[in-house]
Structure formats: structure tokens, C-alpha cells
Amino acid sequence: MSFDYEKIKAYYDYDYWNTPGEKSGYTNMTAAIGGEWHRWACAWFNSVIRVEQKKLFDAGCGLGHFMVAFKDLGADVYGCDVSDYCASIVKQLFPKTFYQTSLEDLNKIQDNSFDIVFTTSTLEHIPRTNVKMVLENLIRITKPLGLIYIEIDVIPDKGRDMPEESHINIRPWVEWLKEFNAVSLKWGPEYLLTEKLRNTKNFPGFPLKDWKFFVFSKLRK
Containing H/E element for 143? Predict the structure, then answer.
């Protein structure tokens, strides 16, 4: 698909999230808000990185599945997404802490605002030319010594039952690691936390074998 945020805002509509085979493989995702799978995922995360009383930002929050689950674990949750359909749902759940905006434009959010910035299955939707800007924005809004969790879908179309047209930046994980190194003067890798998450098996199926993720911490000023 050609990348145009006005088109993107409309692309992630009801069909994308709820009607498999139309734009994605997703099924009934709106009805799944507050459901078991995302609660398990957030419990997996929380078993290593505690979220209670932490200010947490979900960058590219979609329909707010993780926001709801993190809130129930005691986090003070915020999030953003560019989609009109997502905004219509998440604004009802988090009217004061949701921003309808792209990750390239987080100007409404102050520097050093969040203890944890969380983004999952989002950066593969961002053009390569914009990735460095997005990473710098995520770092900017994180508090010094705060944590940034990034998970990215790297599975190419040929390995998927349902290719997603919106995956405009699918590439090998090693290439993403190079992107992360490009902003290395502003954050540092959290190898221990990342490995603890990889080795945590207390919840069904987590982490999934194809998950590619890493935890970083913002450097102290």
C-alpha cells in the first residue's frame, strides 16, 4: 500500500480488526478487548517488569487491548494510535489518556513523561525513512532510566497464512538491531531483562517462538 497517513487512518477499520481475510487475519478483535490472551501477555510482561503505579505509554495501541490489561495490573496507562476506528473505541475506554496521532508526531506529549514505553507489532507498519524519528520520539517521552519495550513482527508474507498489506516494513531482525544502534547514544540495551522475559514460561505460550523483542533503558542525562 502507498503510505499516506490520511489513508492509514481509515485503513485500520472494523474489517481490519474483525473480519479475517479482508485486510488481515484478525477475528472479532473488538469483542476481545479485556479478554484472556492480552491479560496473559501483560501478566508475562509484569512478571519481569512491574507496572503497578508506573506511568505506561502504549505506542500504537490499536484497540487498547494491552492498555486495559495493564490498567488492571495497576499501571497508569496512556496510549496513541492513528486509526479513526481505533480512536472511536479507545476514547471511550481512556478519554483522558488516549491521543489520536502517529508515532512520528508525539508533540503533545512532554519529554520524560513515562516510566515504561511499550510498543508491540507496530514498527513494521512504519516506513523505513521514519523509523529513526519514531525511535527518538519514544526515547524522548521516556523518563531517564525508564524502560522501552519494542516487539516487531518480522515474518515475511510467504510465511503467513494471511499477508497484511499494511506491513510495509517487514525485514529481518538483524536489520532492526542496526536501527536500534543508530540511536545508541540515547538508550542502552537491557540484556538481563530481555533474557528474563525470553525465559519466563509461567503463562500459556509466552513468549511465542516468533516474537522478536528487546528492552532498552533511556540513559541518564
Answer: strand 142-152
| CB neighbour burial string for 97-111, b if at least 16 within 10 angstroms, e if fewer | bbbebbbeebeebee
Interatomic CA distance for residues 56 and 193, integer angstroms: 17
Which segments of 27-101 does DSSP mark as H helices, in order?
36-46, 65-72, 84-93
With the C-alpha atoms ordered 167, 172, 175, 176, is the resulting torsion angle positive or negative? Answer: positive
In three-state secondary structure terms, 207 is coil
3-state helix vs strand vs coil in the chain, percent to 5: 35, 20, 45
Q: Tell me: the pLDDT tens digits for 25-37?
A: 999 999 999 999 9
- Residue that is written with C-alpha cell 524522548 in the block: 140
Q: Where are the domains of the chain?
A: 5-218
pTM: 0.96
CATH assignment, 5-218: 3.40.50.150
Amino acid residing at 122: T
Grid cell of 69 as nine digits: 490489561
